[in-house]
Every structure is written in structure tokens, then in C-alpha cells.
Amino acid sequence: MKTAIVFFSYDGSTRAAAKVLSEKTGADIFELEEKRKRGRSPLSFMAAGFGASIGKRSRLNDTFSRQMESYGRIYIGTPVWAGKAAPAVNSFVHSLDAEGKEIILFTLQADPEPDKNPSKSLETFKSILEKKGAKTVSTARLHGAAPGKTAPAQEIQRQLAKFGF
Asked: Quick check: pTM over 0.90?
């Protein structure tokens, strides 16, 4: 089955996870890029968290919707901001024709114990995608790194192994 990994990464941890997954699965990688780059100030950080918390969507350079037509399995990766997915990933999920697709969702977050708190973003995406005719076959919540830092690839590999990736 042809496999894709679609993700958004702000500080690099989700990108690192996508690369590890691609190496393990042979999947093609598609990185979502916002038309307007996000700032790095504390105010920008708070605004990003607020936007995520209310389910905001970003304008993207490309949603890759057309390209996804030829993929049967799609990994979707997002950083977690204020307990929710990044706006860029919201845009992708809402634009995706998910009918008949197998979906694997993964998140990266600063929380060192990602399984302790319920994942609103995963449940929200799972519901949206299943209403669109997709089947969510797996989810993984990973510890990334503190804001402004990137998680080491070896640590991401270790965590992914726990999920059978």
C-alpha cells in the first residue's frame, strides 16, 4: 500500500519523527508550510497556542490534497499546542478526501508524560476523519522537547518502538 507522512513542525521534533517513520516504512514525506511564517516571540508563542485551542486553521502553501489521492495509508503528525493540534494540520485534515484511507495519527508535545492527559487533538481528528470515511488504525503520543528545542532522533525512535513503529 502506498504510504505518505504529512506533518507540520515548528521546532523540528515532528519533522524528526516524520523522518524516522519514513525510514522505517518507506513512506513519502509531505511537510505542511504556512503561508505566513510564525514569529518566535513569547507573544507569538501565546497566539499560536490560542489559535490551536480554538481549532483555528492556517493558510498553507499546499494542502497536498491532490497528492493524497494516490495514497492508501497516511500518517498525520502535529505538535501539540495548548492541548490541540497545530492550525496547519487542522487545515490539512479538513481539506483531505479521506474516504477509504487508513490513518495513523501521531503527536509530539513538551509534556514528558504524554499519555497522562487525554489527547483532545487525536480524538477530534479521529472523529473528523472517520466521518469522512477513513479508518484510524493507530495513534501515538510522543514526548518531543521543550518549546524552542528539537527532540533527538534516537529518543523519538525509542518512543516509536513502544508503539510498534
From this structure: yes
Query: 28: which 3 cell numbers?
Result: 513519502
Query: Which ranges in 9-86 belong to alpha helices (H)?
Result: 13-25, 42-53, 65-68
- Domain of 156, in residue numbers: 3-162
Q: What is the CATH number of the domain that holds 54?
A: 3.40.50.360
Cα dihedral sign, 110-112-116-119: positive
- Summarised one tens digit per residue, pLDDT across range 48-87 is 888 888 888 999 999 999 999 999 999 999 999 888 899 9
SS (H, E, C) 63-103: CCHHHHCCCCEEEEEEEEECCEECHHHHHHHHHCCCCCCEE
111 neighbors 146 (Cβ within 8 angstroms) = no
